[in-house]
Specification:
This protein is 15% helix and 33% strand. It is of the alpha+beta class and 489 residues long.
């Protein structure tokens, strides 16, 4: 297991509930950057900030009065030795790894050896030790032990980019409602707040990823599902041939297999993480260089809005435009891909750069525009870490149901939001429970805010009920909701 060291005195503990409020610890003018690709962002479980092991070192002195060639150490609990020079060999005695012997080097009286190792999470304790066949010496607790965290993974990267404001409402990396938005969103300011422009949803559709789990679900619906490899194209039609209208909260390859969408989402994550200081700052301000290319000399953070427009205004556009954009974004996301290592993880996640900018021929530094910096402010609405815990219950399929207007005459819009794609049945009943109309009958419906119209022109004034039933696709899960509506003529 890869580990991150936290230098603490014995007895101190690391809290898994730390909420950092200070800015990131990064150097000015980085020459190393790091990026993630969609394929590298599908890790499903994040690493918690709990001690995984202790790192320790202790010095043992030969006071036997003779020349010795081995050292035997007994520990409390399983231990691994990581450095035992000048001894060339070391091995545990037995499978429990509580007794270790190092050998192969002669030490005269007065010589010493410093042993390094990893021990139990609470602390490492030496019970007894001896050189050669001499008498055992009393045990002790090594001083200044390092309590080690597991190395974070790409799930930690997704989680902290969202929950610490990478896509906060009104920020330069989002819109007025917040979340990672792919394609152009259409909003309007009504009665003191921003809302979705419903007229625009009759013509256009877009994706709003509100939490990191929406990103994971969009890239790979479950661990055995395929990733986005489909033809880059705009948001005109879903793969089932239906128009791509309204806002959706995930876009799996099951809905629309679109490589460009996945690359754009990864690029926006990389830019937001850099602005937060989770990865080296200044990534979004790098300049794309390709002489003669339509995107030559553009900042990376300016490519997102261009790709958004391509996704939204797809009518009449040729395939070459989408292939061109997809090719550029793919190259950029691959530019600084590499193994994860950290500057810090205990109180805030800061990842190291993995590749020098000088090695990427199609990107150069920007000396004219200062790096975008976002403050790290905890966003509780975007924290879905509890949903990632092992054994947690999946959310209800149905999130919101209502109808408007209510009372109505003669039509009302029944609106419902699904947390994931489902087979939906929607029926209307009178006050005696008699079925009047089936609006949806086991219809495959995507996770989004969906609207259907009920027309009560043929009915008398009175109270009516609608019942919505959603059946999950991946498991035997069913959610239902019953609502009341009033027809006044």
């Amino acid at each position: 297991m890869a580990l991150v060291a936290i230098c603490l005195l014995v007895g101190e503990r690391v809290s898994a509930e730390v909420r950092p409020s200070s800015g990131p610890l990064v150097e000015e003018g980085p020459t190393l950057f790091r990026t993630f690709t969609p394929e590298s962002l599908v890790t499903r479980r994040y690493e918690r900030r709990v001690t995984a092991a202790t790192g320790w070192k202790s010095t043992f002195r030969n006071t036997t009065g003779t020349i010795v060639s081995s050292l035997e150490i007994h520990f409390k609990g399983d231990v691994t030795l990581t450095n035992f020079a000048p001894f060339p060999d070391a091995a545990p005695r037995g499978e429990d790894r509580e007794v270790w012997i190092v050998w192969g080097q002669k030490l005269i009286h007065g010589d010493s050896v410093t042993i390094h190792g990893l021990g139990p999470a609470d602390r490492t304790k030496i019970l007894q030790w001896r050189f050669g066949d001499g008498a055992f010496q009393s045990g002790f607790i090594p001083e200044n032990q390092d309590f080690l965290l597991p190395m974070p993974n790409s799930a930690n990267f997704r989680l902290e980019t969202f929950e610490y404001g990478g896509f906060a409402a009104g920020s330069p990396t989002s819109d007025q409602l917040g979340g990672l938005v792919a394609a152009k969103s259409f909003l309007k300011f009504v009665n003191g707040s921003w809302r979705i422009d419903r007229d625009s949803t009759k013509v256009h559709g877009w994706v709003r990823l509100r939490r990191q789990s929406d990103v994971l679900r969009s890239f790979q619906r479950n661990k055995n599902s395929p990733l986005h490899t489909g033809t880059p194209r705009g948001f005109c039609l879903f793969d089932n041939g239906k128009p791509f209208l309204r806002q959706v909260f995930s876009l799996t390859p099951f809905k629309m297999d679109n490589h460009l969408f996945a690359q754009l989402t990864a690029l926006k994550l990389n830019i937001a993480a850099s602005a937060l200081g989770i990865t080296p700052v200044g990534f979004g301000e790098l300049i794309y260089e390709d002489d003669g290319h339509s995107l030559d000399n553009m900042m990376l953070r300016d490519l997102g809005p261009i790709a958004d427009s391509l996704l939204t205004y797809c009518a009449g556009r040729g395939p070459s435009e989408y292939l061109m954009m997809d090719s550029v974004l793919t190259k950029i996301n691959l530019a600084f891909l590499g193994p994860i290592d950290t500057v810090s993880f205990a109180d805030s996640l800061v990842l190291t750069g993995v590749r020098p900018l000088s090695e990427v021929a199609y990107l150069r530094a920007n000396t004219e525009v200062p790096p975008l910096r976002l403050p790290r402010v905890y966003q509780p609405d975007m924290d879905d870490s509890e949903e990632l815990e092992s054994g947690s219950e999946p959310p209800e399929l149905i999130a919101i149901v209502n109808n408007y207007p209510n009372p109505f005459n003669p039509q009302t819009e029944i609106q419902f939001e699904l947390q994931e794609p489902a087979l939906v049945t929607l029926k209307v009943y009178d006050i005696l429970g008699r079925e009047l109309e089936t609006i949806l009958d086991h219809e495959l419906t995507f996770d989004a805010i969906n609207e259907v119209t009920f027309d009560g022109s043929s009915l008398a004034s009175g109270i009516y009920f609608y019942r919505l039933v959603a059946e999950g696709l991946d498991a035997a899960r069913v959610s239902s909701f019953t609502g009341k509506m009033v027809l006044l003529k």
